[in-house]
Design goal:
It is a single chain. This protein has a five-stranded parallel β-sheet, sandwiched between helices. The mean pLDDT is 87. By secondary structure, the protein is α/β, with parallel strands linked by helices. α10 packs across α11. Keywords: Repeat.
């Protein structure tokens, strides 16, 4: 794919930035279905840790790497944290990568999207950002290190009136299709923050990929980076238990109002505990179950029974669940043709 940037004479710097903004990459964008925020009352310990790391002045963790396995809830936490920072006026910008997306699958739109959000959130940076881009109107077509210098360093070079460090949230870095760009970005951000040229805090969320772990956990980067792993510990299992209990309660009330027979307290503590253990601490497993059970054209108890009938000792419970969901779809000939 060839990317070209066309600039009109007299076009303002902010107009140039705006054309390169990925609207569907921001936490509050209407261009995409929003990533789910954390269920109320869950992930409180991690969110408190993020607040602490981001608001301490000065901080020795200018880059906080939140990492964990697929489906454990990193994007939900990033979504919740970005929304909270936005409400407090602390959010500089957010970008949610998505593999396969034209605007969210590469690094090309990352820096213009963050830069434009910074100028909106902190108007004192606007004139500086505009002047920077107007001085080099081809900046968006240049290499990453050049864009970082122009969009993240130069606007902060003059004495700043900001009373705190803006917070940038970058989610799903491992979903950026260019693996080399992932490592280049980390190295560049470490150098910039270490020098003090860009007074920001950055939260980066990703899977625990080896090439990312090598950089974030390198001893020479410990003065800037700190890692926080999301584990399937007792707190995570308690959060999932609460999420399931409240989710099934909601399904029970909705479908009972539609005339379906479901006992109070359905499906029972034993069933919930079984699903908690099967989840292995991943929210994607239980959230998929709730979406599958909460089908307006099916009886929730029948669908839940189908889930419970799956192999209880399988080592691939999520694969089993997806197989069950696909097998229950009507018009299988159409399904197979689409697949």
């Amino acid at each position: 794919m060839n990317v070209s940037h066309t600039t009109n004479v007299g076009e303002s710097g902010l107009d140039i930035l705006l054309r390169a903004v990925s609207l569907d990459a921001m936490h509050n964008s209407a261009e995409r279905p929003a990533d789910p925020s954390c269920h109320p009352g869950t992930r409180s310990a991690i969110l408190e840790e993020l607040d602490k790391s981001s608001f301490e002045q000065p901080s020795d963790s200018l880059i906080l790497w939140l990492h964990g396995c697929a489906g454990i809830g990193k994007s939900a936490i990033a979504q919740q944290f970005a929304a909270s920072c936005h409400e407090r006026g602390q959010l500089g910008g957010s970008f949610f990568f998505k593999r396969g997306s034209a605007s969210r699958g590469t690094w090309r739109n990352l820096l213009p999207t963050l830069a434009y959000q910074l100028t909106v959130a902190f108007p004192t940076l606007g004139p500086r950002m505009q002047l920077t881009v107007e001085t080099d109107k081809l900046v968006l077509g240049k290499a990453m290190h050049h864009q970082l210098e122009k969009l993240l360093v130069q606007p902060f070079r003059r004495p700043s009136q900001l009373a705190f460090r803006p917070i940038l949230v970058i989610d799903g870095l491992d979903e950026c299709e260019d693996r080399g760009a992932q490592t280049t970005l980390i190295r560049a951000l470490v150098d910039i923050l270490r020098s003090g040229d860009a007074p920001v805090h950055i939260l980066i969320c990703s899977r625990s990929e080896p090439h990312l772990r090598e950089l974030f956990e390198a001893p020479e980067n410990s003065d800037v980076c700190r890692g926080l792993e999301i584990r399937a510990d007792h707190a995570a299992l308690a959060d999932i238990r609460r999420y399931l209990a409240e989710g099934f309660s909601r399904v029970q009330k909705i479908h009972t109002a539609r005339g379906m027979l479901l006992d109070d307290g359905w499906p029972g503590e034993n069933t919930i505990e079984h699903l908690v253990k099967k989840s292995s601490g991943t929210f994607i497993y239980v959230s998929t179950i709730l979406r599958y059970v909460d089908d307006e054209y099916s009886h929730p108890a029948d669908r839940l029974d189908a889930v419970l009938s799956l192999d209880p000792i399988s080592l691939t419970p999520l694969d089993d669940l997806y197989t069950q969901i696909l097998s229950s779809i009507p018009n299988k000939s159409t399904l197979l043709r689409v697949l």
